[in-house]
């Protein structure tokens, strides 16, 4: 189909309706499509589910020539291919599992293809470029464009080689798409793919019907059982390992609701059966690793709970975003532990040096999310480049603002005690020393005779655990390989009194306070 510019505006809406069956564009789709149709290089940053594929599929139908889509995962590619073909788009793919290469190439040359999906490693070969030269290409769409950035969480070196191809066909507009983009990654995509800054279109990331709640793990099984009792609809519990997934599914299943497990270690049959049962169910709980959820369309998920720290804010947004697709109220719970941060930092040490700063920034951003006493949604949205209001009114901190207190003194006492006991003991021992306990172990080590013995008294003792968590999160404390505590790189400014440590009061203490206030 060839459309002249003056007829374009009306015709795009007609195509949207006639080909895709949608009554209207959603969010920034119109803006992106208009820019693409005008032949201008564009980076579209849209959350999962916002409808990115339409942004190139619609132009692929409207424009004369084929749209080449670079996509990193063959499975994902084939899902989209089938969806495109289902609405009558002439689409094909060239991947290692396709066996109709010759036919696809012939169709491309004959101008009989609207869409051609390829993997990045294919797109960058000389053979592929020669093929493109013999055809008419209308658009390059680069899906999952964050893969081009080393700073991103999913770097694919092949994406770096796309630029020469894009530049060889310099007259063909390029559209990069991604759901994940902190400021660094965004910048990198623009530079790597040669897109001007004003070509960046960011869509709204807010999911106002999701209530966010974040808190430390404190008897996880009980916390989850309470949650399952409170939220009746279908829900997903994300666990961090396959073993944890199975164990949690078994434990939670005892409470009476249908519970199933899903992880990559289960046989394809079991996975498919569990997924189908979940999609059909109105009250099932799926305990799963993050392998579950990609490409699953279940609009009425009422809650998503993370049993441990997600990999990144992007990951958290995406996984929690599987709740409440129908727009009805839903909740997202995150249960974290200081050891999640310790483990994440340990893993970073094993990465190649170039990737470490990006990973560290990701952990720090998660630290800010879990530690804050302010609006969770505001933190999430600011991460995606938006300027949200200070309070959303629909997260734990907005609904019941927590008491936070200046615990810098306690933090300094704790750090000193860790230092003076030789940076090898766990929190339990440090707590005993600070509160002045005299046990055999303390006497044997001579820890009853050091200056920090007994310097924490009364209510302050209840602060030691939250303070240690805060210090672990901000890398002022680290765990040793034997589970002891040692000073981390950010301990110094706190010991020197240059940095404040505020903590949210532990619930018990808060309750006592409230009771006192009320009586
Ligand atoms: P993304 O790639 O951004 O995660 P998809 O392209 O897979 O999102 O689209 C998500 C869902 O939204 C799909 O089911 C799609 O059919 C639907 N969709 C896309 N655009 C529209 C629209 N304008 N109106 C209604 N539904 C839409
Ligand atoms: Zn809020």
Task: Give structural notes.
By secondary structure, the chain is an alpha/beta fold. 43% of the residues lie in helices and 14% in strands. It has helices at 5-20, 29-37, 52-62, 74-86, 101-109, 120-123, 126-133, 162-168, 183-193, 220-230, 242-253, 268-280, 313-320, 338-349, 356-371, 376-383, 396-399, 408-420, 427-434, 440-445, 464-473, 492-495, 507-518; strands spanning 42-45, 66-70, 91-94, 115-118, 137-142, 174-178, 200-202, 210-216, 235-238, 259-262, 285-288, 303-306, 330-336, 404-406, 477-479, 485-487, 502-504. A seven-stranded parallel beta sheet has the order 3-4-2-5-6-1-7, with helices on both faces. A six-stranded parallel beta sheet has the order 8-13-12-9-11-10, sandwiched between helices. A two-stranded antiparallel sheet has the order 14-17. β12 (303-306), α13 (313-320) and β13 form a beta-alpha-beta unit. It is elongated and about 85 Å long. The model is unreliable at 1-7 and 509-519 (pLDDT under 50). The structure holds adenosine-5'-diphosphate and zinc ion. Zinc ion binds at residues 375-377, 391-392, 395, 397-398. Adenosine-5'-diphosphate is lined by residues 22, 25-26, 29, 46, 48-54.
In total, how many beta strands?
17
Low-confidence stretches: 1-7, 509-519
Helix content: 40-55%
Spatial gap, N to C terminus: 76 Å
Number of helices: 23
Sheet with most strands: strand arrangement: 3-4-2-5-6-1-7
Instruction: Supply Rg.
Output: 27 Å
Largest sheet: 7 strands, parallel
Structural class: alpha/beta
Overall geometry comes to elongated
Strand content: 5-15%
Task: Give the names of the bound compounds.
Answer: adenosine-5'-diphosphate, zinc ion
Mean pLDDT across every amino acid position: 91
């Amino acid at each position: 189909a060839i459309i002249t510019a003056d007829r374009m505006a009306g015709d795009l809406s007609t195509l949207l309706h006639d080909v895709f069956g949608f009554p209207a564009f959603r969010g920034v789709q119109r803006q992106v499509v208009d820019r693409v149709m005008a032949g201008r290089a564009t980076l579209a940053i849209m959350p999962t589910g916002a409808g990115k594929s339409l942004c190139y599929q619609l132009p692929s139908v409207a424009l004369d020539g084929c749209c080449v889509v670079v996509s990193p995962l063959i499975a994902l590619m084939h899902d989209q291919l089938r969806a495109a073909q289902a609405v009558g788009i002439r689409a094909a793919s060239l991947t290692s599992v396709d066996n109709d290469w010759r036919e696809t190439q012939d169709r491309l040359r004959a101008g009989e293809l609207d869409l051609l999906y390829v993997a990045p490693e294919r797109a960058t070969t000389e053979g592929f470029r020669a093929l493109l030269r013999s055809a008419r290409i209308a658009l390059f769409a680069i899906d999952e464009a964050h893969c081009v950035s080393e700073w991103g969480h999913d770097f694919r070196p092949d994406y770096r080689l796309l630029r020469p191809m894009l530049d060889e066909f310099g007259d063909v507009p390029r559209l990069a798409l991604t759901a994940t983009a902190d400021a660094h990654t965004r910048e990198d995509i623009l530079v790597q793919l040669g897109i001007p800054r004003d070509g960046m279109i960011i869509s709204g990331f807010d999911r106002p019907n999701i209530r966010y709640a974040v808190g430390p793990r404190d008897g996880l099984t009980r916390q989850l059982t309470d949650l399952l009792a409170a939220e009746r609809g279908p829900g997903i519990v994300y666990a961090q390992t396959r073993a944890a997934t199975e164990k949690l599914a078994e434990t939670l299943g005892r409470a009476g609701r249908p519970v199933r497990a899903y992880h990559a270690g289960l046989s394809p049959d079991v996975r498919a059966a569990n997924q189908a049962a979940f999609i059909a169910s109105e009250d099932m709980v799926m305990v799963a690793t993050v392998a579950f959820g990609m490409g699953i369309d279940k609009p009425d998920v009422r809650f998503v709970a993370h049993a441990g720290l997600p990999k990144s804010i992007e990951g958290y947004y995406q996984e929690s975003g599987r709740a409440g697709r129908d727009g009805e109220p839903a909740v997202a719970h995150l249960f974290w532990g200081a050891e999640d941060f310790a483990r994440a930092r340990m893993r970073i040490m094993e990465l190649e040096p170039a990737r470490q700063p990006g990973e560290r920034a990701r952990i720090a951003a998660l630290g800010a999310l879990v530690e804050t006493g302010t609006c969770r949604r505001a933190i999430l949205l600011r991460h995606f480049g938006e300027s949200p209001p200070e309070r959303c009114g629909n997260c734990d901190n907005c609904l019941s603002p927590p008491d936070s207190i200046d615990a810098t003194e306690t933090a300094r006492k704790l750090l000193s005690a860790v230092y003076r006991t030789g940076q090898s003991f766990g929190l339990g021992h440090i707590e005993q020393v600070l509160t002045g306990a005299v046990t055999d172990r303390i006497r044997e080590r001579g820890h009853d005779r050091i200056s920090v013995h007994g310097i924490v008294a009364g209510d302050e003792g209840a602060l030691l655990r939250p303070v240690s968590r805060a210090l672990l999160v901000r890398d002022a404390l680290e765990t040793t390989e034997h589970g002891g505590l040692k000073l981390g790189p950010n301990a110094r400014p706190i010991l020197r009194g240059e940095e404040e440590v505020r903590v949210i009061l532990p619930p018990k203490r808060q309750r006592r306070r409230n009771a006192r206030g009320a009586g």
